[in-house]
Amino acid sequence: MSTTERPDDRTISSPRSDRVRRIAGLSGRSARRRHGLFRVEGPQSVRSLVEHRPDAVEELFLTAEAASDHGEIVDLAGAAGIAVRPIAPEALRAMVRDQDAAGALVSPQGVVATARTAAVDLALEDALAALPAAGEPATVLVLHELRDPGNVGTLIRAADAAGADLVLLTGASADVLAPKVVRSSAGSLFHLPVAGGADAELLYPALRAAGVAIAATSGYAQDELFAAEIPARIAWVMGNEARGLPAAVLADADLAVRIPLAGAAESLNVATAATVCLFETLRRRGRE
Amino acid sequence: MSTTERPDDRTISSPRSDRVRRIAGLSGRSARRRHGLFRVEGPQSVRSLVEHRPDAVEELFLTAEAASDHGEIVDLAGAAGIAVRPIAPEALRAMVRDQDAAGALVSPQGVVATARTAAVDLALEDALAALPAAGEPATVLVLHELRDPGNVGTLIRAADAAGADLVLLTGASADVLAPKVVRSSAGSLFHLPVAGGADAELLYPALRAAGVAIAATSGYAQDELFAAEIPARIAWVMGNEARGLPAAVLADADLAVRIPLAGAAESLNVATAATVCLFETLRRRGRE
Question: How far apart (Å, rounded) are the C-alpha atoms in residues B78 and B101?
Fold first, then answer.
C-alpha cells in the first residue's frame, strides 16, 4: 500500500484554504479576468454546464451528500472525463458568499464548479459564426447597456426558452459571467451562444451583414407588435433599465414596434418587454 | 403678525425626528400593520398614487428641488386637496433606508408619501366585487405563495400593462405593501384592485362563483398555450418560485396549459411564465 498522498482525490476540508478563497474571489469581475475562470453554483446550473458545455469545465466540487442526491451530475462528469473533487460542506459554502435580494446567503446546495470564461463568453465574431445559415430563420436578443445582473440572467433564460439562437450584450451591460447572472440564467447560459462586452458600433453592422434585421420596441412606434410583420431573421434590442435605448439606436433600427399597453401602466420593465417580443416571435414561427 | 407656529407648513429638517423614524420603520410588516400605513417612494410611484388613489394618501413629502422638478405632483395634490409637506433632503433620505439588489441605497429622488393599507390592500370580497360584471371578459392574476417582492411588484406591473382587472395573492405570498413590491410595481399597484393575504381555500371557489375559470401552467399539460382556447373570464394562477403550484391546486384547475419551450431550457421563471400568459390573453382579446 502506497503512502503517497494523492491530493486530487482527498476531500477539501478547510474553508480557509487558498483554493477556496480563490473561488470565492471569483464573485469579482477583476478576479474572473485575472484567472480566466468564473463560478457556477447549485445542481441545476452545474448539471447544465457539465451536460452542455463539458469542454468549459475547469473544476467540479461536490459534497458527499450532493454526490449522493445528484448522481446524474456524477454520471455526466464521468462520461465527459471530468474529475469530481470531494469537498466538506463548510468549505463548499465558503466558496459562495453572495447574498440574494433579501440579504440571505445564497446556498450552492453542495455543488460548485469553475469554468473557463473564454469558452462561454464568446468574441462577437465567434458568436455570429454560430448563427443559423443565411436563409434560415434566426432570433437574436441584444441587451444594450442592461445593468441588472438578475435581468440579464432572466433574459438569457427566457431567450433560451423562446428558442433564440444567440444573446449579445453591449460593453456597458452587466458582466455575463457575474454569479447572479449565472444563477438567474438557471443553466440557459450553457444552452446557446452568448457574447458579452460587444462594441455597439460593430454589433449592429455585423448583425445586418449577417442578414439579421434590427428590431426595437418603443411606446411611440406606429406598428403594434401583435400586428407587425416579424422578419425571419431578427434581433430584438432591449435598452437600459432606466434610460431605455439611446435615440440613435432606435432611429437606426430596421423596425420599431409598440407593445400594446391595455391598463394604466406607463411602460413595461425590460424583462417583460423582451419576454413578450421573444415569445410572440416563437408563436409566429410555430404557426408559419 | 402672528408668532403661532404652524407645524404643518414648516420644513421637516431633522433626519432623527420621530416622524421620520416612524416612516423609515414602515419597511417592516409589523409596523405597517400597527400603523395601518405603508410607504410610497419616488416620483413615478407617488404621482400614480396621488393621481389614481388620492383617497388613500395619508401624507405627502417633497423636497424643494423635487417640488420644482415635479410640478405635476404638486398640481395633482392641490387638485385633490392633499397638503404637500416640505422636507429637507437629508430628512427625506432618512425615511428610506432600503438597499437595492446591488446593495446600494434606494433613492426616493426627493419624493415620499404614506398611504393607508386598507385602501389599497383590499379584502378578498371587495376585490372580487370590483370585477367586470358576469358576461363581460375578465382577466385575473393569482399569485400563489409567491415570495420574492421584486417578482410580485413586476407581475402587478405586467398585469396592469396587459389589461388585467384584478391581482390576488394568497396568504403565504410576499406582503403586497412591502417597499420593494411598491417600487417594482412602478405605480401599477394603484391602477387596479389588489388583494393580498387571501385564504387559498376561499379564493378559488370565490373566483368560480364569479364565473371565472381557474387556469394553471404546467410543463406536463397537453394543451399548448398558443393553441388553447382561453375563456373570456380567466384567472391565471402562478406558483411559488422554487416549488411551483401545489399539486392539489393544479389538479383542481379548470384548464392547464403548457408554455412552449423551444430551446434547452428546463422551465421558465414565474415572471416570464405569467408575462407570456397575460399578454397572450391580451392578444386574443384584441383579435376577437
Answer: 35
Check CB contact under 8 Å for B157 and A268: yes
pLDDT one-digit tens code per residue, A177-191: 999 999 999 999 999
Better pLDDT: A103 or B134: B134
From B271's Cα to the closest Cα of chain A, the distance in A is 8
Residue B122 pLDDT grade (very low, low, confident, very high; cuts 50, 70, 90): very high
**60-89 of B, contacting A, C-beta below 8 A:** none
Q: How far is B3 from chain A (nearest CA, A)?
A: 46
Can A7-118 and A124-287 be said to share one CATH topology? Answer: no
Q: What is the CA radius of gyration of chain B?
A: 21
Residue window 194-253, chain B: list those with CB within 8 Å of chain A: 226
> How many Å lie between the alpha carbon of B11 and the closest alpha carbon of chain A?
30
Which tens digits make up the pLDDT trace of A198-240? 999 999 999 999 999 999 999 999 999 999 999 999 999 999 9
Task: Kindly list the domain boundaries of chain B, sorted by start residue.
Answer: 7-119, 124-287
Contact A150 B268 (CB under 8 A): no
- Domain A7-118: give its CATH code: 3.30.1330.30
Q: How many CB atoms lie within 10 A of CB A252?
A: 14
Model ipTM value: 0.91
What pLDDT, in 10s, does the model give residues B176-233? 999 999 999 999 999 999 999 999 999 999 999 999 999 999 999 999 999 999 999 9
* CATH class of the domain at A124-287: alpha beta
Question: Which residues in chain B are closer than 8 Å to A194, comparing Cβ atoms?
Answer: none
Of B250 and B106, the one with more pLDDT: B250
Task: Kindly indicate whether the domain formed by B7-119 is annotated with CATH number 3.30.1330.30.
Answer: yes
A286 touches chain B (CB under 8 A): yes
Report chain B's mean pLDDT, rounded to a whole number: 93
Q: Do A268 and B161 touch (CB under 8 A)?
A: yes
